[in-house]
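dumping this here so i dont lose it
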C-alpha cells in the first residue's frame, strides 16, 4: 500500500513517545525489520564476518549430507535451506555482494563433494537438482554482470571453477544446452552484456524450470 504524503506528515508529527511505541509494536511483528535494525544498531560483526561464518556452516552442512546422501532431489532440500540462509543474510545486511558470492560457494561445494553420487543418477532422477543448479547459475551471472566492473573480477575464480565442475557432468551439460546456458560463459568468465535479457527470454519461453 502506498503511503500518502499527508499520512507521512501526520506520522512525523506524532509525539515522540507515541512514535517509539508504534515502532516497537511494528518491530515485534516484522522479523526482517527487527534483524535489519539489530544489525544496524547493535551488531559488532562485519558483513564479511557474517559471510565467512555462513560459508563455514555450508561446509559443515555439505559434509554431514555427504555421510547420508540418498538422492539429489533429497539433497536439493539441503541446498534450498542454504539458499534461505543466504536470503536472510542479504535481507538483514542489504549486502548485494554476498548473494552471488555465497551461492557460488554453495554450488561449488555441492558439485565437488558429490561427484560420484550425482554421476550415478539418471537424467530424470537428477533433473530437479540440475535445473536448480542451472537456474541459480544464470541468476549468479546476471547479478555479477550488474555490478561495477572492478567488483565483477572478484568472482572470476569461483565462476570459472563452477563452470569447470559443471562441464564434468554429462547430464548437467545436456540440460545446460537445452536451457540456453553456455558453460563457456563461466569457464572463460565471459558473461554476455545482455545476460539478463537472455535469462528473461528463456524464462518467458518456459525454460529454466
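and the seq i came up w/
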Amino acid at each position: 500500500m502506498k503511503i500518502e504524503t499527508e499520512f507521512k506528515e501526520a506520522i512525523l508529527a506524532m509525539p515522540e513517545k507515541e512514535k517509539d511505541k508504534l515502532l516497537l509494536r511494528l518491530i515485534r511483528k516484522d522479523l526482517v525489520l527487527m534483524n535489519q535494525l539489530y544489525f544496524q544498531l547493535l551488531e559488532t560483526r562485519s558483513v564479511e564476518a557474517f559471510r565467512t561464518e555462513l560459508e563455514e556452516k555450508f561446509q559443515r552442512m555439505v559434509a554431514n549430507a555427504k555421510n547420508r546422501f540418498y538422492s539429489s532431489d533429497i539433497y536439493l532440500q539441503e541446498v534450498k535451506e542454504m539458499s534461505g540462509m543466504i536470503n536472510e543474510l542479504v535481507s538483514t545486511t542489504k549486502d548485494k555482494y554476498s548473494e552471488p558470492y555465497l551461492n557460488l560457494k554453495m554450488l561449488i561445494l555441492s558439485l565437488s563433494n558429490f561427484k560420484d553420487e550425482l554421476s550415478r543418477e539418471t537424467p530424470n532422477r537428477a533433473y530437479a537438482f540440475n535445473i536448480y543448479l542451472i537456474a541459480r547459475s544464470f541468476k549468479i551471472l546476471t547479478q555479477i554482470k550488474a555490478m561495477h566492473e572492478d567488483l565483477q573480477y572478484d568472482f572470476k575464480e569461483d565462476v570459472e571453477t563452477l563452470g569447470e565442475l559443471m562441464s564434468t557432468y554429462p547430464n548437467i551439460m545436456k540440460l545446460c544446452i537445452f536451457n540456453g546456458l553456455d558453460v563457456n560463459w563461466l569457464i572463460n568468465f565471459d558473461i554476455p552484456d545482455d545476460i539478463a535479457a537472455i535469462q528473461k527470454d528463456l524464462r518467458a519461453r518456459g525454460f529454466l524450470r
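DSSP finds 13 helices and no strands in the chain.
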